[in-house]
Specification:
By secondary structure, the chain is mostly helical. The chain is built from 13 helices and no strands. The chain is 76% helix and 0% strand. The longest helix has 39 residues, at 215-253.
Length: 311
C-alpha cells in the first residue's frame, strides 16, 4: 500500500471533519441564542450577559470559530450548557447504548440482506426471486419512523409480546434493531443479487462446475468471495446510514442513545453537545470509508491503490 494512497485518504478524512464541524457551527449559531433557550423569559439582562460571557457567546462569530477549532485540536470539545459538564462526557455516556443498537441492526442487515440476495440470484426469474425483491424493496422504502410505529402497534399494543420503549432487557432491543436494520437489509439484498448474477455467469464458475465442485462449494468458495467486493462497498455506506438512522429510530422507541441525545440537544441548542456528536459521527464515517477502501483493495489485489483503476 503506497504512502500517497494513505496520505490522500487521511487528508480527505480531515477535510470531511472540518467541513462537518464548520457547517454545524455556523448553522447552530444562526438558529438563535442558546442562552435565551436555557434561561427563563424573565431572566435579568445582567444574568443573560453573564452566561453569554461565560460560554464565549459575547464574542464575534469568527472569534468563536477560531477558539472552537483551537479547543478541538487540543481535545477540548466544550461544556454542555444544560448539564454544565464536559460535552464529551455527556455524549460518551450514551455511546454504549447506540453501539448495542448499531451492532444489532448490522446483524439484522447481514442476516436478512445476504441470504435473501443470494437466494434471489440463484432463483432468478422465479416467484421466489420476485417475492424476495418485493419484500426487500418494501423494507427499504418504508420510512424508519413509520416502520417503528407499525412495529409498536403490532407487537406492543396488539400482541403485547415486546416492550414499546426503554433499554432494560434484550427484548427492548428487538424492535429498534429491526426498524434500523430492515432498510439497510433491502439495499444489501439488491446489491448482493446483482453482484451474484454477474459472478454466476463468469467462465470460472462454469469451470468449477465442470470439475465437479458441489453447488455449496461453488457458491461459498467461488461466487461469494468475488461478489463480495461491491457488496462490501455498499455495506460500508449502509453502516454509516445506520448511525444517521439512529437519530430517527431512538426517539421513537425511547432508546437512550446518542441519537436521542442529539434530538434533545438540538431542541435545547446545546451547542457543545451537538458539535461533539457531529464530530464523532463524521469521524466514524471517515473511518468506515477508509476501512472499506482497504478491504476493497485486499479483496481485489488488481485495484490500483493510487486510484488509477485496475492494472
Amino acid at each position: 500500500m503506497s504512502l500517497r494512497f494513505l496520505a490522500g485518504k487521511v487528508l480527505r478524512a480531515l477535510l470531511t471533519l472540518w467541513l462537518a464541524v464548520t457547517f454545524v457551527f455556523i448553522v447552530l449559531r444562526m438558529s438563535g441564542d442558546p442562552v435565551q433557550r436555557l434561561l427563563p423569559d424573565d431572566a435579568p439582562l445582567s444574568v443573560i450577559e453573564a452566561y453569554r460571557a461565560r460560554w464565549g457567546l459575547d464574542r464575534s462569530l469568527p472569534e468563536q470559530y477560531v477558539t472552537y477549532l483551537r479547543s478541538v485540536a487540543a481535545g477540548d470539545l466544550g461544556i454542555s450548557f444544560r448539564d454544565d459538564r464536559p460535552a464529551i462526557d455527556v455524549v460518551m455516556e450514551r455511546v454504549p447504548a447506540t453501539l448495542r443498537l448499531g451492532f444489532a441492526a448490522l446483524a439484522v442487515t447481514l442476516l436478512i440482506g445476504l441470504p435473501f440476495g443470494v437466494l434471489a440470484a440463484l432463483a432468478r426469474g422465479t416467484l421466489l426471486d420476485r417475492g424476495t425483491m418485493a419484500f426487500t424493496i418494501l423494507g427499504h422504502s418504508l420510512p424508519s419512523f413509520f416502520l417503528g410505529i407499525l412495529l409498536i402497534l403490532t407487537f406492543s399494543m396488539y400482541l403485547r409480546v415486546l416492550p414499546s420503549s426503554g433499554s432494560a432487557t434484550w427484548l427492548h432491543l428487538i424492535m429498534p434493531a429491526l426498524t434500523l436494520g430492515t432498510g439497510a437489509a433491502g439495499a444489501i439484498a439488491r446489491f448482493t443479487r446483482s453482484s451474484m448474477l454477474e459472478v454466476l455467469n463468469r467462465p470460472f464458475m462454469r469451470t468449477a462446475r465442470a470439475k465437479g465442485a458441489s453447488p455449496l462449494r461453488r457458491i461459498v468458495g467461488h461466487a461469494l468471495p468475488n461478489a463480495a467486493i461491491p457488496v462490501i462497498t455498499v455495506l460500508g455506506l449502509r453502516v454509516g446510514a445506520l448511525i444517521g438512522g439512529a437519530v430517527v429510530v431512538e426517539p421513537v422507541f425511547g432508546w437512550p442513545g446518542v441519537g436521542n441525545l442529539l434530538v434533545g440537544a438540538v431542541a435545547q441548542r446545546d451547542l457543545a453537545v451537538v458539535q461533539t456528536i457531529v464530530l464523532m459521527v463524521a469521524f466514524t464515517m471517515a473511518a468506515i470509508n477508509f476501512a472499506v477502501d482497504l478491504t476493497y483493495g485486499w479483496l481485489n489485489p488488481r485495484v490500483n491503490m493510487l486510484g488509477q483503476g485496475t492494472t
